[in-house]
Structure formats: C-alpha cells, structure tokens
Amino acid sequence: MVELFHADVQPGLHTLSINITSIQSPRALGIDFIAYNASFNNISPDPTVAAATNSGAPHKSDVGAKVGAVFGALAGVGVLVGLSILLWRKYAVRRNRSQKFQLP
After folding, report:
1. Are the C-beta atoms of 67 and 73 separated by less than 8 Å?
2. pLDDT at 103
3. 32 domain residue, yes or no
C-alpha cells in the first residue's frame, strides 16, 4: 500500500479535496480508508455538528421523499380498493349461481 497523503491537523472541521489530473489506462485510483483519531470519548450528539448540518430549510430530498410517500400511499389504497372490488364481484357471481340451482 502506498501512502498518498498525511497531515497532522488541529481538532475541528476539515475538508479533504482530491484533484485527479491524469490517470493512464489500465491504472486506477481507489481509496480504501481514511484513518483518523477521534477527539471525543462517546457518541453523544454534538450541538456544533447539528448546527452546521441542519439549516432548517427543507432539502429537495425531503420534498421528494414526501411526494413519493404520498404517491405510494395513494397507489397502495388504489390496489386495496381494486382487490376488494374484484373479490366482491367474484363472491357475488358465486352467490348468484348457487341461488339459481336451489329448489324453492
């Protein structure tokens, strides 16, 4: 394994950007892992991280998920109604056939 980059940085938020300028075939670049040392002892919610990631405005993915849920629910109700009608009609046809052959 070849170490491409190493940095000793102070605790805080950091961004790692990789700019690939040239790769000749058949070579490729893969990143297996990024090793770091955590600066905290437990995984309790960190208010600074929540403030940085939650802007309060709905994201497009949130809106898309809600629209998808509504259409999915409507499709599910439509399937249930369709199956109910189909089974009811099948039952009604059987009931009518059995009543025709009964003696008064």
Report:
1. no
2. 56
3. no
